[in-house]
Amino acid sequence: MEVDEGPDPLTNKKQITVTRPLLPELAELTPLLERIWESGRLTNGGQFHAELEQQLCDYLGVSHLSLFTNGTLALVTALQALRIRGEVITTPYSFVATSHALLWNKLRPVFVDIEPETFNLDPAQIEAAITPETTAILPVHCYGVPANIDEIQRVADIYGLKVIYDAAHAFGVRHRGQSLLEAGDLSVLSFHATKVFNTFEGGALVCPDAKTKQRVDYLKNFGFADEVTVVAPGINGKMNEFQAAVGLLQLARIDEAIADRRRLYHRYQRLVSGLDGLELMPEPDGTDWNYAYCPLLVGPGFPVTRDALYDRFRQQDILVRRYFYPLITDFPMYRQARQLPLPNARAMSERILCLPLYPGLSDGDFERVSAVLQAAAGRG
């Protein structure tokens, strides 16, 4: 999810976006930059890279993690690391990077519907989509809400399928007392600037064991096993030292950032509860959630349509997003892909509007968002 925070260069009006990066103080960043420069090691697994990997493992409650320069390369590499071939069952309700990673690996996506309560892949639809060519399932923890990991794993075990989770939204999420990132065979994180935790650009691949991590580390560094040995046709997916240093600063304040997000989410809940036809996605049960997004559903009982409400926000320089609209299956490169009926995904795509939610959202900006909703509801 991109960000365009700050004044519009044409109107000089302040814009409010869905989310914005948690930025370190320059005074904190300067000594780290000096240490990087003095070391002479700007990338290729330097000091900060190693330190961030370890601190993330400790914070997230996982044993093995490999850092990447962005989440898309981590997802591409995850599919390569497990040697996935043929067809992969996935969701149409996601950012296009999820399915683009399949095309980059010459895999055939098969799209099935989502659960309307969670916005996640519906396990009941997966089995009907399986063919002899199916080798894996690629679900998404949409908005950081846990997918139905037990049922997805049950289906995968019956048919001998791998499960790779796109956990781009799920940083720090714990489900039933355990890290959500331990589900499946691999989990992929995004550290893009607009995520709960960011390194400006970045990502990570959570691995179940040291052997898998070693293969991943080979693949993200051109396939080099040592200076003179190349063991796979790898790619350049390495995180550099500057990104890692930013990540260390971000991690030190991540709990405070999530607490700010929680407070704002509850404030939106109180606002929306008084407006007929609007529904905020409820917090998932049994989950320590990260409040990655603020998904609002605009129903037929609201006086204006979702798109009309979207336009009203845009007219006030509030850059809300229809995440995710259109569906991935509506883009030209996916229209011929095999898909089961997608009534839930389409219905959600036509109702969704993500509201601004990030640490530092001011009371004044919150009131600007509230004023648009109140006016559209006829309360202005």
UniProtKB/TrEMBL annotation:
Record GO terms (molecular function): pyridoxal phosphate binding; transaminase activity
Any Pfam family matching the protein: DegT_DnrJ_EryC1
GO biological process: polysaccharide biosynthetic process
Sorted UniProt keywords: Aminotransferase, Pyridoxal phosphate, Transferase
Catalytic residues in the record: 195 (proton acceptor)
Gene3D superfamilies for this protein: Type I PLP-dependent aspartate aminotransferase-like (Major domain)
Presence of keyword Transferase: yes
Highest taxon, organism lineage: Bacteria
UniProt family annotation: Belongs to the DegT/DnrJ/EryC1 family.
Protein name (Swiss-Prot/TrEMBL): Aminotransferase
Lineage, broadest ranks: Bacteria, Pseudomonadati, Pseudomonadota, Gammaproteobacteria, Pseudomonadales
